[in-house]
Structure formats: structure tokens, C-alpha cells
Amino acid sequence: xxxxxxxxxxxxxxxxxxxxxxxxxxxxxxxxxxxxxxxxxxxxxxxxxxxxxxxxxxxxxxxxxxxxxxxxxxxxxxxxxxxxxxxxxxxxxxxxxxxxxxxxxxxxxxxxxxxxxxxxxxxxxxxxxxxxxxxxxxxxxxxxxxxxxxxxxxxxxxxxxxxxxxxxxxxxxxxxxxxxxxxxxxxxxxxxxxxxxxxxxxxxxxxxxxxxxxxxxxxxxxxxxxxxxxxxxxxxxxxxxxxxx
Length: 245
Description:
Rossmann fold, 2 domains, 5-stranded parallel sheet, 12 strands, 20% strand
């Protein structure tokens, strides 16, 4: 794995947690992310990062699925319960089922070992850009709350309140996609627009997974969606009026 050329520090100065029991791989990730201006903390076990999460909130967790004391999938589930940080899976498991399961549990992206450090950095920056775009400080939409069809989204707290008053915590990836829909109601949006990235591979199903998760929360019948509709051959559309406050 070759090192990327150093560039100017990241303007975000984001805090990145690396949970990786292979010290060599962890050092490579830490060194290359630090060269791009990220603050990095490394953990070799799930237990140590769980304790740290009680004291500090990172902007992004990079999680290896093959940890010695806890399966990475289980750790991801814990992280999404206690934090709204981004999640990037780095794993030697190349099977599709592991990648899909990671996305289902809220991961924003994944990298399969062996990987190029420049690829890891690019994916970290992409996740953080999407996370920033979905936050309350968005230039185009500074409002915090969005209401539609009896639902209410608190963009700052990542909370979606149902018409009957039940709160649902959404992961960063879900918040990003839902917010794009809410900012463009009754508009057909391509997978690239929803992902916030161009030239997505036709085999990349991450957007479809996130929309499926949203439909399970929003729709009476997710198999016959009325709110987030599929426009075959074009993309998806939110069929609802939206009010911001």
C-alpha cells in the first residue's frame, strides 16, 4: 500500500477513530490520514473504543469487522446507538453479504483490504463531506426542522418523529439521503444526486439500501411505497409537501 502525496490539511480538522487490531494496518491508516490534517485515535479492541465513546464523540469511526473481542458488525450496532458519527467499514471480508450487512447497520461506506491509502483518504473525505452537507449548517437550507405528512425531522439531532409521536434515530447516511429528498420534494433525483457523488458504479447498491431503510420507517407498506417513489429508469422522488422551520 503506497502513501499518498501530502496536501494541505483538511479544513474540517475532523476527529477519526480507527478500530483495527492489526497494528501495521492501523499505523498506515493513521499516518496517511494525519498527513491530510485529520486528528486520529487508534483502538485495537472494541472494548477500548466503547469506553472512549463515553467521553468523546468522533466525526468518523473506521471499523474493522474482524476484531478480537467483538464482531465488527456488533460494534457498529453499538456505535450507531450512542453516536451520530460517520461509519466506514474496512474489512478483509470481500463477500457481498458482509458489505450489505454493514450498510444495513448504518455504515456510510466500506473499503476491502488490501486497499490503497489514497482510496481510504478519498472515502473518508467523501463521507465527511456528505455528513457536513446533512448538518444544520447547510448553506442552502439553514433551517433545523422539516415537516411532511405528519412526520418531523430534526436535522441537528438526527431524530425522525412519526405522526404518532415516536422518535426514530437515523444514521448519518440515512439523514443525508432523507434531507436531499426533503430539500427537493416532487423532483426526480438520480442516485448520483442522492449520494452526492458523480460516476457511481451501476453495481453500487448503497443508495438502494439506504432508501430501503427509510421506506421501512416511513411507508405503511414498504413494498408499495407512496412517499418515496421509484421513477423507473430515472431515479427516486419524494411525493410530499415539505415545510421548514
